[in-house]
Amino acid sequence: SLGDDVLKSSYTIESDMEGNLWIGTPAHGLHQLRPRHVRKVLLPTPDESASIFTLHESPERGIWIRNACSDLWHYQQGRIERGPQALHDLPGCIHSMEVRQDGALWLAHGHHISSWHEGVLTSISTPKKATGFDVSVVQEDAQGRMWLGTKGAGAFVQTKNGWHQWSMKQGLPDTHVHSI
Q1: Model confidence, pTM
Q2: How many other CB atoms are found less than 10 A from the CB of residue 32?
Q3: Which of 12, 20, 103, 122 is at a distance of 20 to 30 A from 55, taking alpha carbons?
Q4: Tens-digit pLDDT profile for residues 72-130
């Protein structure tokens, strides 16, 4: 069973298509909660109970796991593998990741956004008004549009006409957006 220390300190929780609940913690590693069963999943790192900061399901492709600044892992069919080296070499820490409807993985790292799709890493231009601000969250909406939250420039959505910004002028209580 999961102890209070695990549940109180969880950083991220993600459900998958099979009904499992994945819980990532800062000091107690990664846990997979199945109906009536909890299983700790060990990462092949020196500290098997490594901090887990971000989890994201990739339909048909397993679970992406971030356990350090830019340390990505992929869990699929009972196996954990280190993510591709190109993703570990990204500048800045990975703050957020999102799996698009088409299976591409978006990564917000430092002042940058990148896309990993079918083995190809592509840089995505961020809004000019976000220049110099870390991107804290990247999210895809039901229409397939990219949303960004930044640490200081508010939120942005990418439309056919470019980027649209939301800031305190448009009613945000703060320009630091950590969740969309």
Answers
A1: 0.74
A2: 16
A3: 122
A4: 888 888 888 888 899 888 888 888 888 888 888 999 998 899 999 989 999 998 888 88
Closest to 126 in 3D by CA, of 141, 143, 109: 109
CA-to-CA separations, 179 to 47, 56, 60, 163, in angstroms, rounded: 29, 14, 25, 18
* Among 173, 132, 170, CA closest to 151: 132
Q: Which of 68-77, 113-122, 141-150, 163-172 has the lowest mean pLDDT?
A: 68-77
CA 132, 156, 62 angle in degrees (round to 5)?
Answer: 95
